[in-house]
Each structure stands twice: as C-alpha cells, then as structure tokens.
Write a structure and sequence with these properties.
The protein has a six-stranded antiparallel beta sheet with strand order 12-9-10-11-8-13, with no helix packed on it. Strands 1-33-32-31 form a four-stranded antiparallel beta sheet, with no helix packed on it. The protein folds into three domains: about 70 residues, no CATH class; about 230 residues, 6 Propeller (Neuraminidase), CATH 2.120.10; about 100 residues, Sandwich (Immunoglobulin-like). About 40% of the residues are buried. The chain is elongated. By secondary structure, the chain is mainly β.
Length: about 500
C-alpha cells in the first residue's frame, strides 16, 4: 500500500528554521517566530541543531545560536561585574539561578525558582556581581548568540563549526573548516565555558581523532551513544571516544580505517541501539562499538555509484520510523529538491525505493514522541519549508499521484530451462479497502531481458490490465509463453490505493 507524505503539520516545543528565521510552537498548535533581529541564521549554509539543558543549540558555520526555553531574561544597564554562572539573584521574595549573561553585559538569563521579578526594583546577587534595576523582564523563549561567558577566563569557541551534539553533559562542536580534524567540548554542564586544560575532571577539552602524534581524518558526523561512546564519522574512517576525555581512563580508538561516513545527518539508530549510516560503499549497520557491516552489498551492490551523491550538492538524511519498523534513507539534491529515497524494512530485510515530489524533498527528520497520538509520528522537514508526516489513509502527495508498485520475479515458469512454458491464468486476492489493482505480466527466454524491459518503462508487457479484487479471489484468463516471467502489480491513478494478500498463476 502506498504511504503518502502529504500531511502538513506543526509541532510542539521544537525549533524549526527557514528563511533565516527560528520558530517554535505553542500548545495550541500555532507556529510562532522567535525574534532573531540582529542575529539571524543563514539557511543557505549547512545547519545542525541539537537539544541540551532545555535549550536548542544551532550550529550554522559562523552563526552559533541558542533558542532558550527555560530562562527568564532581565534587561539592564551594562554591569560593572557580571554575575557568575550559578549565582543566585534576589529581588524581594523572587529568586533566580543565573545561567548566562550576554557579551554586552546588558542581559542576564536565569531560571526563576520562586516569586516574580519586576522592573525598577533592585536585584542583588550571591556573588561579586553588580546590583541592578531591571528595565525589562521577558519570559521564555529567547534567541541569542552562543558565546563564551563574559567577564572571566572562559577560553574561546571555534570561529566556525558545522557539527554539534551533546555528550556526557558537554556540548561538542566540530566541522571547523580551518581544523576539520578537530573536535571541541565545553565544560560539563556549562556550554559557555571553553577554557581548555584547567586540570579538573569537568574541564573543557579539545583534541584530534588520531593515534598519539598523528593528524586524524576530516570529521563529518558526531554521533553520541548514550553517555558511553561518542562516534566520530570521518571522511575515510570511523573513530570512537570511550568515556569522558578529561578522565585518564578515556581513549579514542579506531573502529574502521577503510569506511567513512557521508555527512552530518546520514545516520540513525534503530530501536535496538544499532547504528545505520551511509558509508563508503553503501548503507552500513553497526552495533556500538562493533565493526560496520555493509547491508547493501548484495541487494544494492552499486548503490553509491547509481545515486552519484556529492556532499557539496546533496543531503542524505536517515531516520528510524518506529511506527512502520524501518529505516528511511532520504537523498535530496539541495538545488531543486529532486530526490531518491529508500525504505529498509527491518522485518523483511528488504529495500523499497521511493520518490517524492520535488517540494517534498527531505532536508531533516525527527520522530516526535508526543503525548498526543495525533502528533506522535516521524516528521519530515521538506524543501518548501513545510513539516510533513506520513499518512496511511491519504491517497496522494499534496495533489501529486502516488505511483506505487511491486515486482514479483523474474522467476522460472518452465521445468526445463531450454523449453518455454505457458501461463494460462492469474489469480488475485486483495485486501479490505483496496481500490483496483493494475497488473503487468512479462515473459521472456531470459531473466535479464525481463529486467531490461521493466527498467526501460516503455516496453509493452505480454499482458496487462486492472482488476477489482476487494477481499474475494479474482481470476484472469491470460495465455503467454516463456521461460522466465515477472509480475508487476500496483496502482498509478490519483486518489487510489491498493493492498493485496496473494497472487498466483497457472
């Protein structure tokens, strides 16, 4: 049965980016734009987002930003001494734990633990920070530049980054064009402290993925696995960080020195913790921290060459669909949205190719585990700026017909490979709710000839037609001869769907 990628929806408490803007959703389901004036993102450049500390971190080259969903913002005159991260601010009966202060020292962000802050009344802190009278009190959410904490020795962040994740309470950055083999980690539980090597277990850390004294490979993906391992997917190799890098027991070990990863989003985990990724020779499966195994070398041996993907022109995104128990591989050309996709069915180990309208070309994915079952689904961010979900009952893709089919065979229909045999009839058993089924029957002396005709798409089959099957068997009288035969069944009409229980021939 065809599954439509057509339902346009909004999502709860998730930042979405498009046209240089950042959005979030209120519980009522309305998408609202965060105010990003003065620090808008660049959607023509690569962009990665990840969650941590009830914030969303946006990694966008030279644009590093934070969408803050927990803190209250106090605006004030520039402070002589900023309040330290973790200080407690007090205003009468209201209290706040300081989280961040901007570079200009004119805004303090913190988590309100009691009471309500108001303007004009003096605020004092538990540390050395200057007292102030707020000129404005702004509720969450907020959007601001991600920088080091001002007013102290908090190091420096990379000037550019294109990769990011959260690992063991540290925010991790990589993809710096000036040092593509380098990774950077903030202090634990403090994404604004980048002072490296301060000789304590929570210190910020930086390093290269390599044996001691050797340069490493270009990092293309950061993949945290629980709090145990951080996988570095590189251009031609895969490395694994075990433990926390500030501890003496931690180590970075090579997993594979011949297999690389395609890009920042070309991976996902299934429900059992297995990692799937687009690699050097196809799609790989890897148990952490085991060795990667190519799962397309038999069924799709020329996958990489056939798709002709290039990181500068294409985006590959992978996602685990826990509802349909499969892995989705999306290959989208960034310039126009043309796409080639695959559904890997974990129940049958089968690969099923899919193509969507260009405006539905997938740029990003997320399985949204909402409490409301209407929203609990795999979400797909598309080229035209819409977020879509799959709908089993929808019979078109935003008005574009779904051409869905399956090919059975080629297979021998003759007991003697040198002698032709005859098919006299076809029988179909449809499923409840199915529209008519279209069929095409091919027969030739060789299996290769049948495959050539099917791939050409313009060759007239030996027999073709449509049948209304519903839930009762339907027999079609057909007389054809050959040594090999193949049956294509499906439906290419708009607003039609099909499902079949069984097919047989005599």
């Amino acid at each position: 049965m065809a599954v439509s990628l057509s339902d346009k929806i909004t999502i709860r408490k998730l930042v979405a980016c498009g046209n240089g803007k950042v959005y979030y959703e209120m519980p009522a389901g309305t998408m609202i734009e965060l105010v990003t004036s003065g620090y808008s993102i660049n959607t023509t450049d690569q962009l990665v987002m990840f969650e941590g500390f009830q914030k969303t971190f946006v990694v966008n080259g030279s644009k590093l930003g934070i969408a803050d969903f927990i803190n209250t913002k106090l605006t004030h005159d520039p402070l002589g001494i900023v309040h330290a991260h973790g200080d407690v601010l007090t205003q009468g009966s209201a209290t706040m734990v300081v989280d961040f202060t901007n570079i200009a020292k004119t805004a303090t962000y913190g988590y309100v633990t009691s009471g309500t802050f108001v303007i004009t009344t003096q605020v004092i802190g538990s540390g050395l920070g200057s007292a102030f009278n707020p000129s404005a009190v702004t509720a969450k959410p907020h959007w601001y530049a991600w920088t080091v904490y001002p007013g102290g020795s908090f190091g420096s962040m990379p000037t550019k980054a294109y990769l990011g994740c959260l690992y063991r309470g540290r925010v991790v950055l990589s993809g710096n064009p000036n040092a593509p083999f380098q990774w950077y980690m903030s202090r634990q539980a403090n994404p604004w402290d980048w002072q490296y090597y301060t000789n304590d277990a929570q210190s910020a850390v930086m390093g290269g993925n390599s044996d001691a004294g050797e340069l490493g490979d270009i990092i293309r993906a950061l993949i945290p696995y629980r709090d145990d391992y951080l996988i570095f997917g590189c251009s031609t190799s895969i490395w694994c960080l075990m433990g926390d890098p500030a501890e003496a027991s931690a180590s970075i070990n090579e997993i594979d020195l011949t297999v690389g990863m395609f890009g920042a989003n070309s991976w996902c985990f299934d429900g059992s913790g297995n990692l799937y990724f687009w690699g050097t020779n196809g799609i790989y499966k890897m148990a952490i921290p085991g060795l990667p195994q190519c799962i397309t070398e038999v069924s799709l041996p020329d996958l990489v060459n056939d798709e002709e993907v290039d990181p500068t022109t294409h985006r590959i995104t992978m996602a685990f669909d826990r509802i349909r128990s499969g892995i989705l591989i999306y290959i989208t050309k960034l310039s126009d949205g043309t796409n080639s996709n695959y559904f890997y069915d974990l129940r049958t180990d089968g690969f099923f190719p899919e193509t969507y309208p260009n405006n539905c070309g997938a740029y990003s994915t997320l399985f949204y585990s909402a409490n409301d079952s209407d929203y609990r689904t795999l979400l797909v961010g598309c080229k035209d700026g819409y977020i879509r979900k799959y709908g089993s009952s929808v019979k078109n893709d935003d008005g574009t017909l779904i051409d869905s089919y399956i090919t059975i065979g080629p297979q021998l229909i003759s007991e003697d490979i040198d002698v032709e045999n005859e098919i006299n009839s076809l029988s179909f058993m449809g499923a409840d709710g199915s529209d008519e089924i279209e069929y095409k029957l091919f027969a030739e002396k060789t299996a290769e000839k049948i495959i050539e005709k099917i791939n050409a798409g313009t060759i007239v089959p030996r027999a073709a037609g449509s049948v209304n099957v519903f839930t009762r068997p339907k027999k079609i009288r057909q007389g054809i001869r050959g040594i090999f035969a193949a049956l294509m069944i499906g439906n290419s009409q708009n607003n039609k769907t099909w499902a079949m229980e069984a097919a047989s021939s005599k």
